[in-house]
Every structure is written in C-alpha cells, then in structure tokens.
Amino acid sequence: MQTYSCNLAKDFDEYKQRVKKIDDSIKNASSRDFEESIKRKQAELYQTLQKIFQRYEKKISQIEKAFSRLESDINSLDHKKTRIESLTEENEKLKKSIEYEKEEKERVLLKCNEMQEIMYQKADENDLLNQKILKLNSEIRHLHDLIRDNGAAKPMSADKFGNLGMNHFEENFGIISPPKYTPELNPDTQYTKVLKSLPKNNVNQRLKFINNEIQRVEEELILSIKE
After folding, report:
1. Is residue 93 over pLDDT 70?
2. Do 56 and 8 form a contact (C-beta atoms < 8 A)?
3. Does the chain have fewer CB atoms within 10 Å around its N or its C terminus?
4. Backbone phi, then psi, for 74, in 5-degree steps?
5. Nearest partner of 132 among 182, 172, 181, 169, judged by Cα
6. Which residues form a coiled coil (predicted)?
C-alpha cells in the first residue's frame, strides 16, 4: 500500500507539471491559436488523467483480489486451527484410553500370576492327595492280604473295597495301582507287630483286628477323596 501511495503521488506530480506546462503554453500563446491550443491541451490532460485512473483501477482490482485471497487463507487457517484442536482433544482421549488399557493389562497379568500360583498350589495339594490315596490303598491291599493269610475265605469288606478301590482311582485320577503287599516290601508294619502279639490259634480275634483296621483305613480314604 505504501508503494502504491508513492506511485500515486508521483503520477499526480507528473500531472501537476503537465498542467503547469499547459499554463505556461497558454500564457505564451498568441490570440490566434489560443482556443485551439486550449482544446489540444485539454485533450492531453484528459488522456493523462484517463491513463492514471486506468492504471490505478487495475491496481485496486489487484489489491481487492489479494485481500480476497488473504481472507480465504485466514478462513483456511481458522479451519486448520479448529481441526488441530479437535485432533489434540482426540489424542488426549486416546492417551487416557491407552493408559487405562495398560493398567487393565497389568491387573489382568497380576490376576493371571495369582491364578498360576493357585494352580501350582492345587497341583502340589493333588500330588500330596494322590500320594496319600496310594498309601491308603496299599494299606488296604496289605490288610486284605493279612485277612487271606489268617484263614478267611473272603475279605469282609471286599465289595466295599471294590467300589472305592483302585479301579475307581485309576479312572478318575489316573493313579497307578500300588504293588501288591509282600512281607519283603513292608516288613514288621504296625499290623504285623500287633498280629504277632495275638494268639495264633485265635483266628476270629485276628480277623476282627484286621477288619477294624480296614474300616479305619477306608474311612480315612473316603475323607481324603472328599478333600
């Protein structure tokens, strides 16, 4: 705008100089060609003014177009600013969501670790229970062998042992049957020690003791299964 103002002032200075020259020409002209000179100079001034106005109309049009482009750019910048603010807000929400997911993942991982510890604990408990069941079944086998060796044709709780015994555990727990009792494997157990103290010819007393022990061991086995 300052450049345009300087150019406009320059053009009007030029116009003033032309007017001065015309005035000087008029003063020096003779009466004979005075009127003709006036008309010619007026035409020159008109053309000069017309050129000046045409030039500045074009410049004004260019300025208006420049302002229009500037206004469009400002509107575009406002739109971009609004979009940036919207994206910034969405980014903050996304950050919070990621932080929440991270915390949730840590909670789930902690819970998984706790469950894994529980599983290991349960596995250890199951191993102990299986060992206890194997031991109790071995004792039952031992007691049944003692009944057989002490003259009973059939163990008193054989049917009960069949329902609760090794087949049941092998199907449900995958437990391998313990080896059949032999004196070499289990010498001088508490049962054999008691039997040795009983009269050898009193078979009923010996069988009663053995069957009482079988009942006790089977009850302990049932409690182990319930656990």
Report:
1. yes
2. yes
3. N
4. -65, -45
5. 169
6. 12-104, 200-227
pLDDT-based confidence at residue 167 (cuts at 50, 70, 90): very low
Cβ burial of 37 (10 Å; 0-12, 13-18, 19+) is middle
Cα separation of 22 and 15, whole Å?
Answer: 11
Compute the distance between CA of residue 186 and CA of residue 192 in angstroms, rounded to an integer. Answer: 10
Mean pLDDT, range 19-47, rounded to an integer:
69
Which pLDDT band holds residue 184 (cuts at 50, 70, 90)?
A: very low
Tokens of 153: 């044709």
Q: Is residue 197 a contact partner of residue 106, using CB atoms and an 8 Å limit? A: no
Asked whether the beta carbons of 182 and 161 are under 8 A apart, the reply is no
Task: Give the H or E element holding residue 201.
Answer: none
Measured distance CA(119)–CA(99) in Å, rounded: 30
* Separation of alpha carbons 192 and 200, rounded Å: 12
- Single pTM value for the model: 0.37
Q: What is residue 28's predicted lDDT score, i.e. its pLDDT? A: 62
